[in-house]
Design goal:
Elements lengths: L16 H25 L30 H5 L14 H20 L5 H24 L4 H16 L3 H29 L8 H12 L4 H23 L10 H27 L1
Helix pairs in contact: 1-3, 1-4, 3-4, 4-5, 4-9, 5-6, 5-7, 6-7, 7-9, 8-9
Length: 276
């Protein structure tokens, strides 16, 4: 009979797993707050950040430290600015929460497969993914500089697992980029308009480098499903046709990539079990 050890008693890297998971959640929440500000103020044309101080988007009142505590401040202020009382976008709260959960998900999924330093590297890559996701979702633009940096870091990170992992990542990144480039050019010819963003193939390479082969196939499948659902819902809300609705595809790729990162091996093994 299997003995189930409670999470709080499982040995982590330095502390019990429950304690480390809580700390990783708190770190993720703080990162989510910071990355949201980075994405809001990111400027790829001249510098990396345009504004230095956090302020209310309505009255421009500078926010004090107690108004910047992730999750807590939003709940304490009931989602409104302390100065002008106008509502604060709910996205601030949800981005912080999602980043906290995503960071914790990496830890709980890959402990003890990752070393402590590999886990830190994974969180850094996840953070860069979040900035790219938010920036593209809000502006329909991507930064090639940041994507190339993320791709290089992803390949270096994968190389820490061994040379074969690096080769696997290169193959996976190449396949993802090639598939998306073919879809982009074929779609452009058929639709007679740009069918996909110029840097979406680079995003695919970034995601492919992390999830590896053959799991990148799952990422591409999930991405098109997520992008299609988002496009249909967005078109319905704006009361326009799908053809006239522009959908940022990079967020779908990154969300699909994260889901594959966490569940890809299980999904792949389940699918292969059906075939055998």
């Amino acid at each position: 009979m299997a003995i189930i050890v409670p999470l709080e008693y499982m040995e982590g890297y330095l502390l019990p797993v429950a304690s480390e998971a809580t700390l990783l959640f708190m770190l993720g929440v703080v990162l989510g707050s910071f990355l949201n500000v980075v994405a809001l103020n990111f400027d790829d044309t001249g510098g990396w950040l345009r504004r230095r101080h956090s302020a209310c988007p309505h009255c421009q009142a500078r926010l004090h430290w107690f108004e910047l505590i992730p999750l807590v401040s939003y709940l304490a202020l009931m989602g409104r600015c302390r100065s002008c009382k106008k509502p604060i976008a709910r996205s601030y709260f949800w981005i912080e929460l999602v980043m906290g959960l995503a960071t914790t998900g990496l830890y709980l999924t890959f402990y003890p497969l990752y070393t402590w330093w590999q886990l830190i590297g994974a969180v850094v890559i996840l953070s860069l993914w979040m900035v790219a996701l938010l920036y593209d979702a809000r502006t329909m633009m991507l930064s090639d500089k940041m994507l190339w940096l993320t791709l290089i870091l992803a390949l270096l990170w994968r190389s820490t697992f061994g040379g074969m992992y690096l080769v696997n990542s290169l193959v996976s990144a190449g396949v993802a980029a090639l598939v998306l480039l073919v879809i982009r050019y074929a779609g452009t010819v058929v639709a007679k308009q740009e069918a996909m963003g110029a840097y979406d193939a680079l995003v695919g390479a970034v995601v492919g480098a992390v999830v590896g082969w053959p799991y990148v196939i799952i990422t591409l499948f999930l991405s098109f499903v997520i992008g299609s659902v988002y496009g249909v819902v967005g078109a319905w809300r704006r009361k326009v046709t799908i053809k006239k609705s522009e959908v940022p595809f990079a967020p779908a790729l990154l969300v699909g990539g994260y889901l594959t990162w966490i569940f890809g091996v299980s999904v792949y093994n389940w699918y292969m079990g059906l075939l055998l």
